[in-house]
Automatic annotation (TrEMBL):
<dbReference type="InterPro" id="IPR050263">
    <property type="entry name" value="Bact_Fimbrial_Adh_Pro"/>
</dbReference>
<feature type="domain" description="Fimbrial-type adhesion">
    <location>
        <begin position="39"/>
        <end position="184"/>
    </location>
</feature>
<dbReference type="Pfam" id="PF00419">
    <property type="entry name" value="Fimbrial"/>
</dbReference>
<dbReference type="InterPro" id="IPR008966">
    <property type="entry name" value="Adhesion_dom_sf"/>
</dbReference>
<dbReference type="InterPro" id="IPR000259">
    <property type="entry name" value="Adhesion_dom_fimbrial"/>
</dbReference>
<dbReference type="GO" id="GO:0009289">
    <property type="term" value="C:pilus"/>
</dbReference>
<dbReference type="GO" id="GO:0043709">
    <property type="term" value="P:cell adhesion involved in single-species biofilm formation"/>
</dbReference>
<keyword id="KW-0281">Fimbrium</keyword>
<keyword id="KW-0732">Signal</keyword>
<comment type="similarity">
    <text>Belongs to the fimbrial protein family.</text>
</comment>
<dbReference type="InterPro" id="IPR036937">
    <property type="entry name" value="Adhesion_dom_fimbrial_sf"/>
</dbReference>
<protein>
    <submittedName>
        <fullName>Fimbrial protein</fullName>
    </submittedName>
</protein>
Length: 184
């Protein structure tokens, strides 16, 4: 009985030696590949702003307008200013643009259509940038530069009623728009 036990131990020892020998060969072959260690470092900065609470659910009062102000198609009322206030802007933000989206008017796709609860007709709402240039619905505005190091900013826009036909019908004229901010 002792003889087979010795043979068994010797066979196990030989197998272990073979495994470690093979592992050693692999390590030495691996070392010949010229491996080096590399460390990657980065600093992550916030590249956006938060929309302040007063700008998240705004209602812009466009006033009371007489239909005679819209004698012919494409006539616009006086633009009404509104602001999107930003806060907690990250240090990496250099500029921001806004994209306004909503249902476009059937007669003029650059205007927002009146909402279904409106009773007025043949009028739409234009969104204008700070220089009072009309923005196309669904397209980004020009970039508004942000002051370096400033944590708050104001984006100025205007809303304007525009006649889409020669005969504007009186009634409530409400529109809904959503904006998306694009940072650089």
């Amino acid at each position: 009985m002792i003889l087979p036990d010795i043979f068994y131990r010797r066979a196990v020892a030989i197998r272990i030696a073979q495994v470690f020998g093979l592992w050693g060969c692999l390590l030495s072959a691996h070392a010949d590949l010229g491996m080096t260690n590399m460390q990657l470092t980065a600093t992550l900065v916030s590249n956006s702003c938060s929309v302040s609470v007063d700008s998240q659910e705004q209602t812009v009062n466009m006033g009371t307008l007489a239909t005679k102000q819209f004698a012919v198609s494409k006539t616009g009322a006086t633009p009404v200013r509104f602001v999107i206030n930003l806060e907690s802007c990250g240090s990496a933000v250099t500029s921001v643009s806004a994209t306004f989206s909503g249902t476009t008017d059937a007669d003029d796709s650059t205007l927002l259509a009146l909402s279904t609860d409106s009773s007025a007709s043949h009028v739409g709402v234009a969104i204008l940038d700070k220089d009072r240039n009309r923005l196309s619905i669904g397209n980004a505005s020009e970039q508004y530069p942000l002051t370096a190091g400033a944590s708050n900013a104001q984006l100025v826009f205007f809303g304007q009623y525009v006649a889409t036909q020669d005969s504007v019908t009186a009634g409530s004229a409400n529109g809904d728009v959503t904006f998306t901010l694009n940072y650089q």
